[in-house]
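STRUCTURE:
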């Protein structure tokens, strides 16, 4: 691709990115509730286009925008050397953008970008038009991602790219969200969390819509077991059991196909999936395996699961005993 054509395509990508972001902000400010979902779609699309602008810039001039294409194939030049070129019309999706950025040692907060996409998916699949609070959270995350992309990756100023007026509007959305988030966090700051739940307040989110705008209904309450939580985004109320088990899944992710190495298991005492193995505590009832709980055969200390299911035997010797019974 000639240099003039490459600059033309690059300018087109930037213009499309800016248009998506600006239209998204306009959709957000509309009083028409039906435009809330399009607001998230547009702001998300604008961010992905900004990422593609950088990938297009880094693509060699004669490579047919290789870094933008989903499919990359080798091609032999006239002089016999091999180069990688893009094939087909399909461009990279979000996952591929993340992979390419990492391969090129470029870093942005893809966790926030994934959060925006999750909010969009939740609204599309469960909440239809969504709520203003849900969209505000997505835009608050978008503000930080866009700032990082433009300043750290594209080496520009946000006001120069999307305009002073639009940047001020986006930044104001972030400030409103931060104010709401602070109020939610203030309502849970006095709760005396159990040892097994000590990471919950730092990772708290609604079990229903996964918004971080969730707080305690009675802010004066200090007892974890008595807490009731309400989400500002979707208005659902959650018990401590529901909230804690949900948050533990986010803090301690595990491979569902690997049942032998789960970081969180069922508690032998309360029956909730809230026993944090690395802490040796239940996050809901504070149960811990007794110090003298050991296998009657080999003397190894029993896990919570072994203590609950096998009594006084470790998994191996419980298996051996079962085989003996079956003979």
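SEQUENCE:
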């Amino acid at each position: 691709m000639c240099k003039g054509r490459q600059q033309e395509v690059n300018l087109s990508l930037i213009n499309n990115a800016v248009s998506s972001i600006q239209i998204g902000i306009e959709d957000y400010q509309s009083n028409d509730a039906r435009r809330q979902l399009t607001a998230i779609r547009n702001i998300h699309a604008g961010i992905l286009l900004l990422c593609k602008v950088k990938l297009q810039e880094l693509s060699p001039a004669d490579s047919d925008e290789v870094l933008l294409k989903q499919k990359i194939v080798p091609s032999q030049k006239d002089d016999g050397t091999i180069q990688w070129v893009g094939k087909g019309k399909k461009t990279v999706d979000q996952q591929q953008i993340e992979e390419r950025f990492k391969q090129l040692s470029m870093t942005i907060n893809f966790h926030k970008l994934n959060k925006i996409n999750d909010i969009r998916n939740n609204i599309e699949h469960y909440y239809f038009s969504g709520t203003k609070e849900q969209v505000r959270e997505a835009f608050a995350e978008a503000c930080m991602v866009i700032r990082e992309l433009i300043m750290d990756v594209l080496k520009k100023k946000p006001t120069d790219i999307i305009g002073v007026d639009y940047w001020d509007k986006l930044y104001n959305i972030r400030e409103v969200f931060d104010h709401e988030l602070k109020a939610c966090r203030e309502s849970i700051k006095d709760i005396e969390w159990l040892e097994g739940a000590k990471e919950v307040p730092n990772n708290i989110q609604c079990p229903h819509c996964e918004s971080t705008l969730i707080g305690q209904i009675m802010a004066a309450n200090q007892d974890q077991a008595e807490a009731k939580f309400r989400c500002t985004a979707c208005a659902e109320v959650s018990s401590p059991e529901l909230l804690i088990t949900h948050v533990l899944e986010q803090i301690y992710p595990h491979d569902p196909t690997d049942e032998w190495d789960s970081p969180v298991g069922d508690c032998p005492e309360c029956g909730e999936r809230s026993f944090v193995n690395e802490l040796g505590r239940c996050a809901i009832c504070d149960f811990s395996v007794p110090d003298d709980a050991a296998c009657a055969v080999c003397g190894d200390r029993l896990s919570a699961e072994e203590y609950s299911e096998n009594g006084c035997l470790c998994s191996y010797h419980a298996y051996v005993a079962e085989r003996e019974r079956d003979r």
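REMARK: The mean pLDDT is 87.
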